[in-house]
């Protein structure tokens, strides 16, 4: 676990990397470095073994085919399971969120997930595309969620996970809630990338990884502007 440098793994960039999700690795690395933590970002392709001793694993979105392949390779590899067993942080987005559960649908076929989170996904009546916004679980102590979603799946949460947010806009899991978390594992439908639009969420992952309750504040003027602009856009779209 975290010792001399913070190790961030960007999982399977060749399969799971839609809608700018790679930006999540850049944001985490930058926010850690600006607090003085040395950082290593490892990009691990799907034909490479996944190291099991990194601090944070980022699993991004993907189309159905790459998502199914990515899940099969992660199950066969076992590295992510070993990492979770020893306390690593995992952040999954969209396909990378669905595949942390017990099952998901891709191209009409049901696939096994990694069973790291108590949830399962099936197909919804429509494709969910657009802005996502919501009130985050108060136990996480974060400001409202802001993101962009594009997925066909819907996600049912089991009793061992908590929703990440109660929705104020968008479809998320089921039109009411969005994302899920348990321990140091957190999944969301938010692209954008999610950690650029939600710097406090990036800091939560960093705090989990380095084991501190607080990090020195950063100048977040630009992301606050983006958040305000997106918030105004969501409010304008909701007006009759
Ligand atoms: N293939 C999944 C779905 O459509 C995830 C899509 C994504 O990652 N953007 O639900």
UniProtKB/TrEMBL annotation:
Keyword terms of this UniProt record: Cell shape, Cell wall biogenesis/degradation, Glutamine amidotransferase, Hydrolase, Ligase, Peptidoglycan synthesis, Transferase
Binding residues annotated for substrate, in chain numbering: 127
Active site (catalytic residues): 94 (nucleophile), 191
Domain CobB/CobQ-like glutamine amidotransferase: from-to ranges: 7-198
Enzyme Commission number(s) of this protein: 6.3.5.13, 3.5.1.2
Reaction(s) the record says it catalyses: L-glutamine + H2O = L-glutamate + NH4(+); beta-D-GlcNAc-(1->4)-Mur2Ac(oyl-L-Ala-gamma-D-Glu-L-Lys-D-Ala-D-Ala)-di-trans,octa-cis-undecaprenyl diphosphate + L-glutamine + ATP + H2O = beta-D-GlcNAc-(1->4)-Mur2Ac(oyl-L-Ala-D-isoglutaminyl-L-Lys-D-Ala-D-Ala)-di-trans,octa-cis-undecaprenyl diphosphate + L-glutamate + ADP + phosphate + H(+)
Stored SUPFAM superfamilies: Class I glutamine amidotransferase-like (SSF52317)
Pfam family, one: GATase_3
A GO term, aspect molecular function: carbon-nitrogen ligase activity on lipid II
Entry keyword annotation includes Transferase: yes
CDD domains: GATase1_CobQ
Pathway it works in: Cell wall biogenesis; peptidoglycan biosynthesis
GO annotation (BP), single: cobalamin biosynthetic process
Superkingdom as given in the UniProt entry: Bacteria
InterPro entries reported for this sequence: Class_I_gatase-like, CobQ_GATase1, GATase_3, Lipid_II_synth_GatD
Subunit structure, as described in the record: Forms a heterodimer with MurT.
Record PANTHER family: DETHIOBIOTIN SYNTHETASE (PTHR21343), LIPID II ISOGLUTAMINYL SYNTHASE (GLUTAMINE-HYDROLYZING) SUBUNIT GATD (PTHR21343:SF9)
Function: The lipid II isoglutaminyl synthase complex catalyzes the formation of alpha-D-isoglutamine in the cell wall lipid II stem peptide. The GatD subunit catalyzes the hydrolysis of glutamine to glutamate and ammonia. The resulting ammonia molecule is channeled to the active site of MurT.
Family label: Belongs to the CobB/CobQ family. GatD subfamily.
Descriptive protein name: Lipid II isoglutaminyl synthase (glutamine-hydrolyzing) subunit GatD
Organism: Salinispora tropica (strain ATCC BAA-916 / DSM 44818 / JCM 13857 / NBRC 105044 / CNB-440)
């Amino acid at each position: 676990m975290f010792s001399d440098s913070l190790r961030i793994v960007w999982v399977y960039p060749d399969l799971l990397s839609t809608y700018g999700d790679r930006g999540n690795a850049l944001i985490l690395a930058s926010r850690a470095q600006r607090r003085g933590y040395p950082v290593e970002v490892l990009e691990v392709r799907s034909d490479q073994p996944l190291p099991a001793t990194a601090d944070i694993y980022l699993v991004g979105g993907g189309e159905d085919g790459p998502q199914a392949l990515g899940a099969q390779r992660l199950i066969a590899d076992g590295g992510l399971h070993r990492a979770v067993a020893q306390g690593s942080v995992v952040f999954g987005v969209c396909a990378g969120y669905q595949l942390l559960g017990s099952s998901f649908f891709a191209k009409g076929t049901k696939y096994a997930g990694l069973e790291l989170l108590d949830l399962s996904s099936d197909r919804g009546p429509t494709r969910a595309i657009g802005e996502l916004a919501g009130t985050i679980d108060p136990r996480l102590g974060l400001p409202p969620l802001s993101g962009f979603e594009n997925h066909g799946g819907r996600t049912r949460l089991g009793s061992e996970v908590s929703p990440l947010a109660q929705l104020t806009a968008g479809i998320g899991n089921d039109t009411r809630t969005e994302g899920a978390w348990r321990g140091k594992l957190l999944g969301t439908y938010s692209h954008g990338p999610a950690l650029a639009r939600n710097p406090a969420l990036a800091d939560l992952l960093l705090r989990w990884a380095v084991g501190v309750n607080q990090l020195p504040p950063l100048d977040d003027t630009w992301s606050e502007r983006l958040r305000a602009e997106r918030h105004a856009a969501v409010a304008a779209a909701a007006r009759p």
